[in-house]
Specification:
inorganic pyrophosphatase (n-terminal core); Diaminopimelate Epimerase, Chain A, domain 1; binds guanosine-5'-monophosphate; binds manganese (II) ion
């Protein structure tokens, strides 16, 4: 990964001159967004900056132990404070998203309107962001990977165990424990470097993958045994969970993390989808196997969303049934999104 030297120098100069710095990631933050925000937070804090993470809404509890001693506000709870913070910042770092609306309704206007210098660090397709500087690498396995290269370029000695752990959780979760999007030797050199800085891989994986609540594990079992719908003729499968079903299993943020991937465990199934009904919207997650379906294009075309080729998401404002009807109709035309058809 070759970061532009001018961009690195500009970022360094901006940081040196800044007093107040904010860090923001996408709504419904995942371990890549949170991990990279936390890593950057500690990096800047050690340079005695007034730095704060503006988190759009709460993140899954399996990340909790990696978020210690971080000055953080939740925009969903302290909206005014979050907006003022963004408006008054000298720099805003935006991590792990490619469009302003991805930070959510509470702060998207403040992010767009703030006069702060904006520096984006991302790995999604087709970024559409007005900014001072952008480190956008759609081939990177995670935003955390991009951030790691930036931090090492700015100050190689600054990576300690706390920062290394936070970067590592982004790398390991965005690659499904190094099973996709990570066929790059450079990623493993970075992992080796992070381990040399104190990351204990066993402990991190235990914390992330072996801390399910009983409800979460039972929801997973229910979803696979009762709710998986397979369309062998189209190479597709999906799981749909209603608000009521989620309530029965006392759904908490992060409880459906990874669930969509089970669709792809099936032989000859190349496209998987998870549909979850939330308070007023329906969320969709799409996944595909390598060199099959372009889910970014699918999500952009049909579901006002986007992401990566093999992992993307979208949203629908309304009820569940029309989503299912539309999705099943679209599955019949998946061929239009096959990468070979490009
Ligand atoms: P997930 O299915 O885990 O929510 O999201 C998969 C990937 O797609 C993530 O990298 C996420 O950031 C991205 N993504 C999810 N929803 C959207 C969306 O509505 N718009 C865009 N542009 N990206 C999304
Ligand atoms: Mn990511």
């Amino acid at each position: 990964m070759e970061l532009n030297k001018l961009d690195i120098n500009r970022t360094k100069t901006l940081i040196d001159a800044a007093k107040t710095i904010s860090i923001v990631t996408h709504f419904n933050p995942d371990a890549d967004g949170v991990g990279s925000s936390v890593a950057l937070y500690h990096f800047l804090k050690r340079q005695n900056k007034d730095v704060q993470v503006v988190m759009p809404n709460p993140f899954p509890s399996f990340i909790d132990s990696f978020v210690k001693d971080v000055d953080m506000i939740y925009a969903s709870k302290e909206t005014k404070k979050a907006r003022v913070r963004l408006m008054e910042s000298d720099i805003i770092f935006g991590i792990d998203f490619n469009m302003v609306h991805r930070v959510g309704n509470h702060i998207k206007d403040a992010l767009a309107e703030s006069c702060a210098a904006k520096i984006y660090i991302d790995h999604h397709q087709e970024p559409d962001l007005a900014c001072e500087t952008m480190f956008s690498f759609p081939d990177a396995c995670s935003a955390s990977e991009v951030l790691a290269h930036l931090l090492i370029a700015i100050s190689p000695d600054a990576i300690d165990k706390t920062i290394a752990d936070a970067i590592y959780i982004g790398l390991c979760t965005d690659t499904g424990s190094f099973s996709y999007n990570c066929n790059n030797a450079e990623t493993y050199s970075l992992v080796a470097y992070l381990v040399s800085k104190g990351v204990c891989v066993d402990e991190v994986h235990q914390e992330i993958y072996s801390t399910f609540s009983e409800n979460r594990l039972r929801l997973l079992g229910y979803a696979i045994s009762e709710k998986l719908k397979v369309f062998p003729q189209y190479g597709a499968a999906y799981i749909c969970l209603s608000k009521e079903e989620l309530r029965q299993y006392d759904f908490q943020p992060g409880d459906t993390e990874g669930l969509v991937n089970y669709c792809l465990n099936l032989k000859d199934i190349n496209f998987g989808c998870l549909v979850t009904e939330r308070e007023k919207i329906v969320r969709l997650s799409f996944r595909s196997k390598k060199n099959t379906i372009d889910t970014n294009k699918f999500a952009r075309t049909y579901w006002n969303g986007g992401g990566h080729i093999m992992a993307s998401g979208g949203t629908f404002q309304g009820k569940l049934q029309p989503v299912i009807n539309n999705l099943e109709a679209q599955i019949k035309h998946l061929k239009d999104f096959s990468q070979q058809s490009e």
